[in-house]
Hints:
By secondary structure, the chain is of the alpha+beta class. The protein is built from 5 helices and 3 strands; from the N terminus they run H-H-E-H-H-E-E-H.
Amino acid sequence: MSTPLHQLKAEFFKTLxxxxxxxxxxxxxxxxxxxxxLLREIEIEPAxxxxxxxxxxxxxxxxxxxxxxxVHYALTSPQVSELLAVARSILTGVLSGQLELFDDLRTSS
Length: 109
């Protein structure tokens, strides 16, 4: 029996459920990055970054290629960038609504 689509979607979104993985995807949305560049940008331990990159690779969201001693990562699809943009838009709307509610609460007291 195959895995239900809703379960696959949940696993996909679980992959996105870590701040380091989101930051990596944001950086890769701009351009391909070497691991050394990602380390400078994100400022985490190399072992932690390696672990997070492995999760993204297993999920099929990023690809890796070796160039000499350096390993470069890129998004597998521009749709990943689009997904991040949609998430940002949704979050902006949610936070905007919360700010309006906060302002209403503050002015009504």
